[in-house]
Structures are given as structure tokens and as C-alpha cells.
Amino acid sequence: MRLGELGEFKLIDRIKQQAGLNPDVIRGIGDDAAELKIPAGHHLLTSTDLLIEEVHFRFAWTDGERLGRKAVAVNLSDLAAMGATPRFLYLGLSCPADSELERVEGLLRGVLAECERFGVSLVGGDTCCSPGPWILSVVVEGSAPDGRSVGRNGGRPDDLLMVSGTLGDSALGLSLLQKGKVVPPLLLQRHLAPTPRVALGQALASAGLASAMIDISDGLAADLGHLLRAGRLDAELDLASLPLSTEFAGQYRSNPSLIDLALHGGEDYELLFSVAEDAAPTVERLAAELAVPVSRIGRLKAGSGAIDLREADGQLHPVTADGFDHFASRVGDQP
Amino acid sequence: MRLGELGEFKLIDRIKQQAGLNPDVIRGIGDDAAELKIPAGHHLLTSTDLLIEEVHFRFAWTDGERLGRKAVAVNLSDLAAMGATPRFLYLGLSCPADSELERVEGLLRGVLAECERFGVSLVGGDTCCSPGPWILSVVVEGSAPDGRSVGRNGGRPDDLLMVSGTLGDSALGLSLLQKGKVVPPLLLQRHLAPTPRVALGQALASAGLASAMIDISDGLAADLGHLLRAGRLDAELDLASLPLSTEFAGQYRSNPSLIDLALHGGEDYELLFSVAEDAAPTVERLAAELAVPVSRIGRLKAGSGAIDLREADGQLHPVTADGFDHFASRVGDQP
After folding, report:
1. Do residues B65 and B106 lie in contact, with contact meaning Cβ atoms separated by under 8 Å?
2. Quick check: B50 and A94 in contact, CB under 8 A?
3. Closest to A71 (Cα-Cα) out of A47, A102, A87, A44
């Protein structure tokens, strides 16, 4: 069955039926706007992302359900980086009228499954026809107690830099997909089905442990650059301390240039954060309780955004903070 | 200059510089999420819209600045229909890398001008390259005191139906554009630069005057149908009472079939609401103070979503509540 045969209003009814109940949702899907309760003493935190076919995803590599999960996950990752509790989600969906209904329903299953996993309610959105690519617009709203969120700008000289999980897996997975090579399952999963570090972000924020925090979506160096410029800091990273998965490390041994993917590859969706040195053991205990690996990868100092990497020779080498520029990177490709 | 030459991060910096300050914005553009204060005792109200080139707009008929204004206005209209105060806005923008920078900057000027007009702060968004059409994703957040918002579902039998402004102008303007005919300035303005009825919606809600309310985006009959089904009601409309602009009425006299545009044409962005009969004079006084015309166009009765229109012959004729279905209407056009 094609989406056009079902029609827009029946699609919205189907979404509404599946969206579940939440006492904080005063009005959900089916009015001009959603009406929601935010806990007293909390601030509202909101993030939004656009995901566009052939820019952010390809159906040759993913399916509706995994795409739906990832669309939610990358947005939750932004709230995780503030230490916020995610609460409400909106899905804007534009796809061709002749889209397979099964793909649309798979997408909804994925969106709702990822929402349920993190206690988030789907409360609104928009649906319309697309003249070409599939387009997803995801908005997530959450909250944090007044004064308890963590921004990019709070890092202090001498703070340790820490990162969750491992680096470069997603970019290596994507690179293997692009080359048509066999992709080890972990790398594929890290690219197509990332896990937002929601519990870790909340725990670091509510205990006041992280001085600055950002999620790694544009690559370690680029996102570290944002954190450094926001806090007027430089950073020194230690190459030997960068956390690599077994799968990544295996390929890296035979191809040392892959370190560029750990430094500059996008879509890790790990948390990069700074902590006072004497708080680091507390952070490590807390992360162990949450079963999330964390690593000390460097240190902050006063400065203006520069990153130096201590390499195997013991010397410091500058690292550029270049990230993925959506417009610049495409200029040469455009007709 | 092309957008690709400026690059994504410089574009975001430009947006950030122009976005202004607001004490309720704890963190705005430039962090992983915006952090905002919602007034104590208020609920959060949120609406989101996708606008896609060749589906919702054409640059042959509009320009960046007018598009930016309209993108904000149609979202504010949704909050107006709840009686909420709009506060914060997010702009997702995806366009080809070879887009003229002047068009992008015009769009931002329009977005910021419309935000300023309604006291709304631009606090976040997303930017990325599009493989084809321009894509805008707009999110607006506002608030209303607990218990003071107006939904679609509160209408009562015997309530009067009222509507702001005039009907069908936008659809007639679009129809003339599509036929390549001369478009009277008012009809063009009503299509390209609609005014959201924010003050009227807030006034009706805060005074507890409207029992149900919706904005007319899909056409009077379709949006009335939503209000009726939500409240288990029928409606009787009076043809002679439907408010028409001088420009619309002039064309209607020589072409009576144009009444279909007043009943079914989209994008009026007027408020349709129900009020107890004895409250109607108060509504009319209040609307006059706000310089917004309002008209009594019919009455509610118990039922299940049916609409009857009393025509010139004094007889009641059924009106279908069909609105624009984004997917169904396109099936035949797809390759």
C-alpha cells in the first residue's frame, strides 16, 4: 500500500493512536499546538534537527525503523549534553506520496520505540508531501532544575577532558559502507543506531560534576573546538588515551591514517566534558554504575581555541578544529 | 555571493548576532539546546511546521524576506488558536549550497522582523545543505496560564460560531497567481504575508470567552470539521454572513462558484471560534478594541461533524468537510 492511498489524516490518526498517555501532556496530537506541563523550578530545554535523505541517510543502508530510532537518538543526544531530562518529542515528516506505507510505519515504530526507551512522549508534528527527498524534522523538549544544566562555556583551566564510549566507530562504519566493504556489526550499529548518553549527562549535571559538556556530532576536534572557544580555552589531548573500540583498533593497526576518523569523524554521539581533576574518580565511579565507559583524554588550559595532540613521539602537534560544514563541503558537488 | 562560500558556521554566527536578547533566554543559539524560562503557573505550548519549496511556496511568487515572515506567521497562528503567548522560535533551514546569500539573508530578515513584531526570540535551529528544494522547519514555543488555553474540543450546542477577518482571499490570490493573472494587492498580501491573530486569540482565551478555537489553515469547512468532531457537534453556517473582502466579493459577483474558495480554500490564518450567545457582544467589543473584524457565521448543535449551509434560497445544504490532503492530492501527480 502507498501512503497516498491512506491519506494524511488517517496517517495522523494512526500516529495518535500509538502515541500513548502521559499526565504531563495536557493536549497532545490533534490540536493546533501541544500543551504540556514543565516541572516547577525547572527550565525548558529544546533542541531541533533536520534529517534529509541523501544528506544524512540513505535507504540503501538503513530502513524506516532504524532511521526513526536514530532521528530521535541524535536529538536526545543534544539534551543529554545539557544534562537535561528529555520529555516531549515532535516529528515533522515529509515524503513522496508514493512512499511504501510499510516504510512510513517502520519509521513510526522506530520513533515510538526510541521515545519509550527514554520515557519521552510523542506529542505533535507535521506531515506533508515531498517533491523529492524524505525529510524529517525532530524537536525534543526537556527540562532541568534551574541552575543545573551544563553548557559548552563552563570549562576551567586545568580541568580534565573526558569522553564517554569510543571514538570514530560511526565514521569508520560509514566509510566502509561508502566503499561497499563488509562492515563489522559494531561499527554498523554505531553508525545506524547510536545510543544517546542520556543517563550519564543527567547524572553529571545533577551532581554538578561537569563544568562544560557537548555531544560529539561533528567530530571530536570540531566539537572540542566549540567547547574551547565558548570557554576561551586551549586543550591538550593525549593520542594514547583516545578510546577506540576493538573493531576500530583492529583496522587502525594496519592503517594509522584512520586516527583522522577518531579525531574528525562525525556522529559519535558521545559526551565530551570537562571536570575538576579531584572530581574525576567520582565521575568514573558514577559512570561505572551506569555501565558507560569514560576516559580521560586530555586537559584544558587558558587560551583561544587551539588543540594540541601529544603523539607517540611525546611531542605536541596542532590539530585543526575543522568539522563538517554542510554548505562548504558541497560546493564542488553542486551542478 | 553563494551560501557555500560563506559556510555553515559563519551563517550561524550571523544569525546569532542578529537574534537579540531576552532575559527569559538562559542559553540561546550556540549550545546543544536552548535553555528557557517559562512563567510560573504557565503551561508550555508548542507548534511546529515544515515548509517545502514547490509544495508550500515558490520563489517565482515570493522572495526570501516574505517567505521568512510567512514561515513564522503560520506557526504563530497555531499558538494564537490556543490563546497562548508566543515566546521562542527555532528555524531549521536547508537549502542548496549554491543558493544566493542575499536570499538566505532576506529570509533571516523576514524571520527576525516577524519575531520582533510579536515579541518572540529566535533561540535555535539547524542548518544543512539540501540536495534539491529549500526546506524550512519552524518551531514556536509559548505559554498560557494553567487552565486558560482554548482547544478544539470545548464547543457546546447553541454556541455561536464566529470568525475573524475575511475568508477565501488567500486561496483566490493563489488561484490567480497559478493562472498568471493580475492579483489585486490585498489578495496577494493575504496569500504571501498573512497576519496571525495573536492578540485576539490571547484576549479570547484570557477572558474565558471562546469555548473552542482553531485557526483556518486547511479551509473553513475542513477546520470547522476538526472542531466539530473534537466536540461531537454539528454546525449550521449562514452563507450571507460569511465575511468577504471587497476584492473577493467583487470577483464573486461575476463568478458565484468562487464561494468554494471561501468555504474550502486554505491559508486564511483567521481564527474560527465558538462563544456562548450572550458573550458575543463582549467578543465584538473586544475585537473592535483590537481593530480585528469578527463575524457571527453560524451556530453549533449536538451531532457528529456535519456542516449545513443556509443558502440564498433559505434552504440548508450539506457541505463536505474535505480539506487539503497532502498525500492523497499528490498521488496522480507523482511519476
Report:
1. yes
2. yes
3. A47
Residue B136 within any structural domain of the chain: yes
Residues B40 and B126 reside in one and the same domain:
yes
E strands of B226-270, at which residues? 233-238
Distances (CA, A) of B222 to A92, A246, A272, B202, B307: 21, 58, 49, 23, 10
Non-local CB neighbours of A21 within 8 Å, separated by 6+ positions: none
Q: What's at A260, amino acid-wise?
A: D
Task: Read off the CATH number of the domain in which A73 is found.
Answer: 3.30.1330.10
Decide: A270 and A165 in contact? Cβ < 8 Å. yes
Of how many residues is chain B composed? 335
| Chain B residues with CB-CB distance to A34 below 8 A | 45-47
Rounded CA gap, A6 and A1, in Å? 8
Q: Grid coordinates in use for A99?
A: 512512499
Whole domain around residue A126: which residue ranges? 3-145
Is residue B141 located within the same domain as residue B197?
no
**Which chain A residues are closer than 8 Å to B71 by Cβ?**
none
Measured between beta carbons, the chain B residues lying within 8 angstroms of A153 are: 31
Q: Does A131 touch chain B (CB under 8 A)?
A: yes
Contact between B47 and A37 under an 8 Å Cβ cutoff? The reply is: no
User: Residue B181 belongs to a domain with what CATH number?
Assistant: 3.90.650.10
Local confidence band at A137 (pLDDT 50, 70, 90 cut-offs): very high
Closest to A222 (Cα-Cα) out of B318, B210, B8, B185? B8
Mark yes or no for CB contact A44/B55 under 8 Å.
Answer: no
pLDDT tens series, chain B, 335 aa: 888 888 777 777 777 777 767 889 999 998 999 999 999 999 999 999 999 999 999 999 999 999 999 999 999 999 999 999 999 999 999 999 999 999 999 999 999 999 999 999 999 999 998 989 999 999 999 999 999 999 999 999 999 999 999 999 999 999 999 999 999 999 999 999 999 999 999 999 999 999 999 999 999 999 999 999 999 999 999 999 999 999 999 999 999 999 999 999 999 999 999 999 999 999 999 999 999 999 999 999 999 999 999 998 999 999 987 655 666 643 333 22
A174 and A259 inside one domain: yes
Q: In the β-sheet with A25-27, what is the strand arrangement from edge to edge?
A: A25-27, A34-36, B42-52, B135-145, B85-95, B121-129
Domain ends where: B85, B120, B145? B145
Pair (A108, A188) in one structural domain: no
Whether B172 and B258 have beta carbons less than 8 Å apart is answered as yes
For residue A150, being part of any structural domain is answered with no
Within-domain flag for A334:
no
A252 and A293 within one domain = yes
Distance, in angstroms, between B291 CA and closest chain A CA?
Answer: 24
| Inter-chain CB proximity B30 and A78 less than 8 Å | no
Q: How far is B100 from chain A (nearest CA, A)?
A: 12
Residue among B32, B54, B81 whose CB faces A82 most closely: B32
How far is Cα B280 from Cα B129, in angstroms, rounded to an integer? 50
Option in B31, B34, B50 nearest A92 (CB): B50
Instruction: Give yes or no: residues B268 and B175 share one domain.
Output: yes
Are A21 and A134 part of one and the same domain?
yes
- Its pTM surpasses 0.90: yes
Assess whether B62 and B196 both reside in one domain: no
Per the CB < 8 A criterion, the answer to whether B164 and B197 are in contact is yes
- Tell whether the torsion through CA atoms of B99, B100, B105 and B109 is positive or negative: negative
Residue of B nearest to A9 (CA): B325
How large is the average pLDDT for residues A12-25?
79
A327 in any annotated domain: no
